[in-house]
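G., the chain you wanted modeled:
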Amino acid sequence: METKKRVEYIDALKGLCIIFTVYAHGVLIPDDSIIGNAFMTMCWGLVPSFFMASGSVLYQKKEFRWKKHIQQLVTIYLGLVFWRFIYWLAYYLAGRVQLSKFEMLNYLFLLHDVEQIDTGVMWYMAVYLSVMLVYPITWFLFRGGRQGRQILVALMILIFCAEILVPSVQWGLSNLFDTQLFHLDSIISIFKPLNNGVTILYVMLGAFWFEYRDKIEDKISGKKRLVYPMCVVCGVIGLMFIKYKDFGSWAWEGKYEMYQYVHVATLILTVGMYGIFASGLFRPVEHLLARLFGRNTLGIYYMHYIMLAVFSWSVLYQICMENYFVGMNMVKAVLVALLCAGATMLMKKIPIIRKAVS
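Predicted structure as tokens:
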């Protein structure tokens, strides 16, 4: 996931995204915490922001090479296999899993999850692999001049309708009338040509934003840049309201909102967060976020989840659960991210496993 020429604000955005990814796992937040719920809600916008950051980099390549692309696909897949093995090994050594030969084959190479091993975090790389399978098509359209980009914009509008607009309308109608009278599933299926369409939408949104960043900056400059923090605030409030309507509480209560990436509020939050970094509002801390976390995201992504799993089996976890304090979950997120970043830097120096973290 390294590029020859790095853009610091993109790396900084990825750094913040990975910290909040760690924040959202192995949660140490009191059930009655409203502030904790707000921060957990922000995580929903930072995962799509990660896809936007990826799109900003992917489509700046001026030349497409099939051999290099196939090698990248194989590297992503083998990376998944490698880390699934590491997860299995940790659970096996802890005496928490026993798999037959065929179960192991399915788990490792066919990416089939098993109940005994929590590999939930790996959905991101599986979806990213799916995005990369259609990348040649989208790259040739994006780099194919005005007509190619018009086709991509039409596809993005289609995905927006299917994955965000219509589901949001359905949610709004259901809550407005407090009933399930309206069923828009058939309408959604008409608009839905691809799996993981919403991910492709965010990736392409990042590509277009980066390509036209100078024009966007000219139109949204000075005090107008405050629109980005306002989008973040509005997005968080909107998502908290959605969760309140679904669960009846403004507090965390250990509950995750389902389908959190397909709400209009998530899109507003994501655009706001990306805009904050693209406009330079985070410039004072960009270098720190980029150097420590943003350039080590893949290693942090894979390692933090198994590290938190091992942590949850320890006595220390129970002590933390019984002695909450404000900010404990953020302290956990930063410490775990730092540990994983350090391990990633070390692994990058070892040729045989370098590709598993870069």
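The radius of gyration is 21 Å.

Shout if anything looks off.
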